[in-house]
Amino acid sequence: MRILDFGCGQGASTWFLAREGFNTYAFDGSESAIRKAKERLESEGLYASFQVADAAAVEYPDEFFDAVIDNVCIYANRIDDIFRMYQIVYRMLKKGGKLFSSCFGDELYGYDTGVEIEKGTFTDIQVGPLKDRGVTHIFRQKELEELLSATGFKDVQVDWNRYTDHGEPVHLLIAIAEK
Q: In three state form, how does the secondary structure of 60-117 look?
């Protein structure tokens, strides 16, 4: 089973997928993040196919992956770019392939404290876990469901998780969908 860790950061999900025996692919826009992820896997005798790439222009073949995991990567963009990234994911998934996508919801501490550059998209968030994180789109559950459906995904299910981070509320939306 071929799985893509979409925007892998320093590779926690990539490491887990490789450790569990999946044919794992991963990319990130940061060369240093990719280097650290590779080093982590190599130190344990694990392997994944890595590349440095921009999430809005990542290139893998059409219908190549059985699953794509977006662990809080896609949300950090304007809504047009987010839609384009989900279209890229859709293109790369095999028919029946699964998307797992997590992003921040509107009950997050710090929501609505930055500069709103478009509906739901902020910069300069003043407090909370997304303070100083650049462009951030904070979703409403229905909005995420509708966006994924408009991209072509079927059986879209969006659930949520609420927890605290250093005492501050975090609201995470978790979407599962099928091509």
A: CCCCCEEEEEEECCCCCCCHHHHHHHHHHHHHHEEEEEEEEEEEEECCCCCCCCCEEE
